[in-house]
Amino acid sequence: MFERFTAGARAAVTVHAPTEARRRGDRRVGTEHLLLGVLHDVEAAQTLGVDIETARSALAALDEAALAAIGIDARGVERATITESSTRLPFTSGAKATLSRALAVARRTGARRIAVVHLLAGLLDGDRTDPATNVLAEVGVDRVAVRARVVP
């Protein structure tokens, strides 16, 4: 399924994103996990101007704010992690849409393989309700400006 991906993009999607999901105790790989997976790539992190720890902290803050909005105080509560398992975590519909957008960008630019830069473009093109979009906004990334630099 991921044979059209470069080694870096394949690692971001099939290794790092599921690891990030398990680390957070999530049972599905969402766009927020894809973003964290992409941030394992040093060049992508530099392009966004965000390191992985900052993005993880922003995601945790967004989680706490969402829980607080419904009356749950989760400050100081540690999330359970899911231990490594041989079963693959399924992708959310948002994550699948991000991968489709990355493929479309790769095709539009004439690339033969989907690279990390295409994944990044797919993440930057998410709608405002997308978890990765919320993380990017939380850390102050100007998605339009970065998208223009990433894929002209």
Plain-language structure description:
It is a single chain. By secondary structure, the chain is an all-alpha fold. The protein has one domain (7-150): Double Clp-N motif, CATH 1.10.1780. It is 61% helix and 0% strand. It has eight helices and no strands. The protein has helices at 7-24, 31-38, 42-48, 52-69, 93-108, 116-124, 131-138, 143-150. Helix 1 (7-24) packs across helix 2 (31-38), helix 2 packs across helix 7 and helix 4 (52-69) packs across helix 7. It is globular. The model has no long low-confidence stretch (mean pLDDT 90). This is Clp protease.
What is the strand and helix layout of this fold?
Elements: H1 7-24, H2 31-38, H3 42-48, H4 52-69, H5 93-108, H6 116-124, H7 131-138, H8 143-150
Helix pairs in contact: 1-2, 2-6, 2-7, 4-7, 5-6, 6-8
Keywords:
152 residues; globular; mainly alpha; Double Clp-N motif
